[in-house]
Design a protein that fits this description.
The complex is a heterodimer. Chain A is an alpha+beta fold. Chain A is 22% helix and 23% strand. Chain A has a single domain, classed as TATA-Binding Protein (2-Layer Sandwich), CATH 3.30.310. In chain A, strands 1-2-6-5-4-3 form a six-stranded antiparallel beta sheet, covered by helices on one side. The radius of gyration of chain A is 13 Å and the shape is globular. The termini of chain A are close together. Chain B has 14 helices and 13 strands. In chain B, strands 1-2-3-9-8 form a five-stranded antiparallel beta sheet. In chain B, strands 4-5-7-6 form a four-stranded antiparallel beta sheet. In chain B, strands 10-11-13-12 form a four-stranded antiparallel beta sheet, covered by helices on one side. Chain B is globular and about 60 Å long. Classes of the chains: A alpha+beta, B alpha+beta. At the A-B interface, strand 6 of A face helix 4, helix 7 and helix 10 of B.
Chain lengths: 105, 418
């Protein structure tokens, strides 16, 4: 199974102090399947966001969030605001690596 | 205890204004809030700026908390202090531990919006020794007075420690004071209804109205987490007392007019810049956020799309019912509004004809800069270098042609190329 994400992982628009990062699905139309697969990897779904057309997940231990735009396949890694500055880049890369292992169900 | 803001919220749909426990509230992000406080300090100097900001917070918070405890039927000091702390967190201002008695005490703060926001935004590049949390400081004094049924202004507060200088947390000392009594005036829904003119439609309402509905639905579901932090659209958001900004601006203006009248126009220029900052950081940040992309799609860069999006945002954030009277891409924008949260205060509370605010006029410039000076595809840069570049190369000029604060029937601005 191939990775669902494009290889580019960059600071997102409006990123402040390495808290917001962005990657994109190779195929936007697979964003719902991607979201389903993320949920299966132990991230907690944040239900209220679905009204907007987002799928939002939270990593329980850290409070980091993954925001998936269902219509476009944009994925934002939103680190918890209390994350120490010195660990932010590593934490973002860890999450991206985790997302790269996500396979569609 | 988590407070549900909807318990005390009143929405004046016709004028796109929101009230919480009888006080007007607006949505603003940490970029604007820090800029606004810095504007007051730039005008008066750091110490006087902090004094004015703390007093503005005290006055606006007293009126707000008085209304809140009455609406909630909170009677005992313990109940009232719990309620004050809970609503402070729900509004995204951080967490306050109000360990105060009748004569005062010590308030511990965690993740206070201004200190925490300043450290996040500037902490790597700037140093600061003066505390940042004037709003939490004034709020703490007011919470003590309301909890114990004391006269407004009978308690004062100052921030003893703040995270901006590297301290681990924030602490605020509340104590009895012998200063003059304070009169906590402010806007309330009844007086607003009495004075607000009928609303009207502008152009492109069919595009704007659905965006306002979507944004309001989303914003209505947002409130502070267990730490008192609201993260949305990639920024730290607050539901803030509009009277805080308005008292501060008017009090600074009064001091400048009294002591340095030649500086009044310069201060108005600073307020306009704060409005431009709001448009750039708040509107620009939201338009480039995943939340917006999910709701309306990523901005294509069509200027009309940006202008209508910004007007929808202004309405959803409670700034007033802004409307597009005329828009000619690359040439001209005319915005009208029955009033704004600034001009309504100026008309009702301050001396008529004395407007102190820059949101409407500054945002007019900022909206045109976002519409014509930002490359939206494939991805925009909404950052400090672009903000400065747009200021240096700004081709736009704004005139306020009608002022509700000065007695006109509406607010109207015209933005044109120089």
């Amino acid at each position: 199974m191939s990775c669902m994400l494009a290889p580019e992982f960059v600071r997102d628009v409006g990123c402040r102090a390495n808290l917001l990062w962005r990657c994109d699905l190779v195929r936007a139309e697979r964003s719902a399947a991607f979201a389903q697969a993320v949920a299966a990897r132990g991230f907690d779904a944040v239900p209220e966001a679905t009204r907007l057309g987002l799928a939002v997940f939270e990593e329980r231990q850290t409070g980091h969030r993954l925001v998936v735009v269902l219509r476009t396949g944009r994925v934002q890694v939103r680190l918890d605001a209390m994350t120490p500055h010195e660990t932010r880049v590593d934490e973002a890369r860890r999450l991206f690596a985790c997302l790269q292992r996500v396979e569609a169900p | 205890m988590k407070y549900d803001l909807d318990l005390a919220r009143l929405h004046l749909a016709e004028h796109q204004m929101d009230f919480l426990a009888g006080s007007p509230v607006v949505g603003h992000c940490h970029h604007f809030n820090l800029f606004w406080d810095q504007t007051m300090d730039d005008a008066l100097g750091e110490d006087a700026g902090r004094r004015v900001r703390t007093a503005a917070a005290h006055k606006s918070s007293y009126k707000f908390l008085r209304g809140l405890v009455d609406a909630a039927g909170a009677v005992s000091p313990v109940e009232r202090l719990h309620l004050a702390g809970a609503v402070f967190s729900a509004m995204g201002h951080g967490k306050l531990h109000l360990a105060v008695g009748r004569s005062g005490g010590l308030v511990r703060g965690e993740q206070l919006h201004y200190g925490f926001g300043w450290r996040e935004k500037y902490g790597k590049t700037l140093t600061r020794s003066s505390p940042a949390d004037a709003f939490a400081t004034g709020f703490s004094a007011a919470a003590t007075e309301v909890a114990y049924n004391l006269d407004p202004g009978s308690r004062s507060a100052h921030e003893e420690r703040c995270v901006v200088d590297g301290s681990a947390g924030c602490s605020i000392r509340v104590s009895a004071t012998a200063s003059d009594p304070m009169i906590p005036l402010g806007v309330d829904p009844e007086s607003a209804r009495d004075v607000l003119p009928p609303s009207f439609h502008g152009q492109y309402e069919d595009r704007i109205a659905p965006m306002v509905s979507g944004l309001r639905e989303f914003l209505g579901s947002v409130s502070g987490d267990e730490r008192g932090v609201i993260e949305a659209f990639g920024v730290l958001v607050t539901v803030h007392l509009a009277d805080y900004y308005n008292h501060a601006a008017h009090d600074v203006l009064d001091e400048i007019a009294r002591d340095k009248p030649g500086g009044v126009e310069a201060f108005r220029g600073l307020l306009l810049e704060a409005g431009r900052s709001c448009a750039f950081h708040t509107f620009g940040g939201v338009l480039s956020s995943p939340e917006w992309e999910a709701m309306a799609g990523a901005p294509s860069g069509d200027p009309l799309e940006i202008v209508t999006g910004c007007v929808a945002l202004a309405r959803a954030l409670g700034f007033g019912r802004w409307a597009i009277e005329e828009f000619e891409p690359d040439r001209r924008l005319v915005l009208t509004s029955p009033s704004t949260y600034e001009s309504l205060f100026s008309r009702l509370v301050a001396a008529q004809g004395c407007e102190a605010g820059g949101i409407f006029v500054g945002a007019g410039i900022g909206i045109m800069q976002l519409a014509h000076g930002v490359t939206w595809q494939p991805r925009p840069s909404i950052d400090a270098p672009l903000y400065l570049q747009l200021a240096r190369t700004n081709p736009w000029h704004v005139e306020q042609e009608s002022s509700f604060a000065a007695g006109d029937v509406l607010d109207r601005i015209v933005v044109t190329r120089r």
